[in-house]
Amino acid sequence: MLRPVYWILRWLLALALLSLMVAVIRVTGAFLKSAEGWAMLATSATLWTMVAGFAARWLLARLPGGDPLELVDTLEHELTHAFVGTLTFAPPVALSATLRDGGEVELKRSNPLAALAPYCLPLYATLLAALTLILRDDWAAYGRLAVAFLLGSFAWRLLREFHFGQSDFRAYGFVFSMVFIAGALPLSLLGIADLAGLIDTAWRDALHLSLDQGRRVLGTLTHR
Questions:
Q1: Contact 67, 165 (CB under 8 A)
Q2: Which of 87, 94, 176, 198 is least surrounded by Cβ atoms within 10 Å, i.e. has the fewest?
Q3: 67, 87 contact by CB (below 8 A)
Q4: Are 27 and 209 in contact (CB under 8 A)?
Q5: CB of 10 within 8 A of CB of 172?
Q6: Coil, strand, or helix at residue 94?
Q7: CA distance 188 to 13
Q8: What does each C-alpha distance from 23 to 71, 78, 209, 211 come to in angstroms?
Q9: Would the pLDDT of 224 be above 70?
Q10: What is the 8-class DSSP label of residue 33?
């Protein structure tokens, strides 16, 4: 009975995230229009630390015995399901993570936020970014670089886990999953970078721009 309502609400959420993502990228990417912006990006310690995090995981995956951090990735994936499930009133009932068989988490109930969270939310980087808020000033800079390194590591994990056979995508449909992730992933990464002090995102301006985009779309549909 309520299934069509839930379907509509899910798609409204996904489209709203997509609209906000476009607005945030437009606001934060404005500086790239100038040559100075590109120069700042190319010499950014944050950017190169992220590249180092990705490269380190790429190299570890090529060790003869396999990636020693694969279990850590699996645990992060399942903990992200459980963490977001708890925040969205779908707490975990059981959780397991093994190197041989991968991981599995059973939630009290399912929702798209909890199901797709591991592909949008780098949990370790989020927790460390929150920790940088209380670090002493002389440690905060190292904490920010550690966040950037973890973001690069997350990019490697996402590259490995993101494939057509992923069971998490089948739960709510591949098309919906792709739209949801396309909207939520950039927002999550920019939010973490902002939280850690790596960038400065004008969220209020982005929200106003997103609402304006929505009004324009609705206006266009109404006048047809």
A1: no
A2: 94
A3: no
A4: yes
A5: yes
A6: strand
A7: 15
A8: 36, 30, 6, 9
A9: no
A10: G
Cα distance between residue 86 and residue 105, in whole Å: 12
Q: Enter the tokens of residue 148.
A: 């950037």
Q: How many CB atoms lie within 10 A of CB 196?
A: 26
Domain ranges of the chain: 45-203
* 122, 73 contact by CB (below 8 A): no
Residue type at position 132: T
d(CA 37, CA 56): 27
Rounded to an integer, what distance in angstroms lies between the CA atom of residue 52 and that of residue 44? 13
**pLDDT tier, 1 (very low <50, low <70, confident <90, very high otherwise):** low
Task: Tell me the pLDDT tens digit for each residue of 105-142.
Answer: 888 888 899 999 999 999 999 999 999 888 877 788 88
Burial (Cβ within 10 Å: 0-12, 13-18, ≥19) of residue 80 = buried
Question: Is the pLDDT assigned to residue 151 strictly greater than 90?
Answer: yes
For residue 98, what pLDDT is reported?
79
